[in-house]
Structure formats: C-alpha cells, structure tokens
Task: inverse folding
C-alpha cells in the first residue's frame, strides 16, 4: 500500500458552506505522504463563475479580500470558460497516469487499487473543501480518503488547545494570503513543521 496526499485549496464566493457553492480559484498538488516529493501541480481560475453571478452575491468582506489578493482582477481579465467538470475529469486522468486505478462495474467511477490511499490535505479541508468537492466533483471525491492528520488546521488547533508554547512560539501562525497556490504551499510547510516537531517525541524501538 502506498499513501499520497492531494493538497488542495480553493477560493470561493462564500466563507462557509452553501447549498450552491461557487468556486473562483483552486490549486492542487499531489505529494507522497511525507510531502517531500511532488508528482504534479495544477492551478485553475473560474472566471465564468464571476461573470455569471458570483460578483453580485459576494459579501463586502469577501469582495474586499479577493480584491486585495488580486484574485478579482485576474478573474476579470481572463476569458476562460473552464468548468469544474472539465477539471475533475482531467485531475482523475492525471492521477490515473501516476497511481493504478480501477473502474467500478456499477457506475464506472474510478478508485485506487492495491490498497493505495490518497488523502485530501490542506487547512480546513475536512470541514469546507471536502464538502464542496463532494458537491461539485463527486467522481474525484470517490478517489479520496480523509484523515485529520492531513488537515493542518485541525493539527494546529490541537497543539494550541494543548498549550504547546514551544510550537506556537517557534512556528507562529501565519495568516493565509487567500490565494489558492500560496495557501497550499503554506499548508505543506506547516505539515512538515509538525512532522519535525513530533519526530522529537518519537523514540526509535530496538
């Protein structure tokens, strides 16, 4: 069995779950379980979402955030008509070139074989991103596994609640830039920090 992490972040019209989520930007990065080797990255903008309706239903807070990050300007300058469905298919095809997949005989959806696991990684992915992927990319959702260990937002809160002053002082929290690629890179850096920190508490067995 081989384990992988598909790191992900998305920028959306809303700050929390909605029945009809609207994604403006996302970024994907597939790594090994230690996040030291990258197999592929992918960055997508969805300006068609902005043209259709997102801009008019965006709260002032979210509009300010996406304006300051430069995302709205990039979306407004783009003429792409990329859809979530197209990205989902291309992502699954790319993953299938790297990791053996098998197709379900019932509905044709593809799954990992050989006991391989692909975990969704990032910050807050268990609460927010997982829900949106399930709604907008259900076939990709079938490929993924979920673990709190790959959600650095959960891990950080656990350390904060436990009062780990050493971790919080040595590696202070950095506010996200609210751009998908930057936030994924920050999540991976944080994940590696947690690995290094915990390695100091693990004693080798003889």
Result:
């Amino acid at each position: 069995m081989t384990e992988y992490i598909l790191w992900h972040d998305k920028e959306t019209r809303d700050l929390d779950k909605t029945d009809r989520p609207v994604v403006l930007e996302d970024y994907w990065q597939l790594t090994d379980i230690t996040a030291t080797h990258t197999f592929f990255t992918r960055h997508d903008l969805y300006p068609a979402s902005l043209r259709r309706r997102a801009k008019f239903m965006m709260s002032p807070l979210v509009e300010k955030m996406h304006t300051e990050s430069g995302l709205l300007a990039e979306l407004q300058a783009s003429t792409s008509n990329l859809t979530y469905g197209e990205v989902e298919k291309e992502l699954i095809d790319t993953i299938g070139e790297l990791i053996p997949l098998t197709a379900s005989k019932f509905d044709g959806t593809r799954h990992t074989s050989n006991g391989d696991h692909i975990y969704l990684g990032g910050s807050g992915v268990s609460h927010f991103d997982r829900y949106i992927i399930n709604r907008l990319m259900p076939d990709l959702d079938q490929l993924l596994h979920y673990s709190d260990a790959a959600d650095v937002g959960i891990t950080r809160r656990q350390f904060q609640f436990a009062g780990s002053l050493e971790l919080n002082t040595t590696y202070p929290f950095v506010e996200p830039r609210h751009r998908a690629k930057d936030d994924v890179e920050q999540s991976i850096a944080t994940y590696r920090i947690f690995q290094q920190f915990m390695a100091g508490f693990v004693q080798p067995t003889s």
The longest helix spans residues 180-199. The mean pLDDT is 85. The radius of gyration is 18 Å.
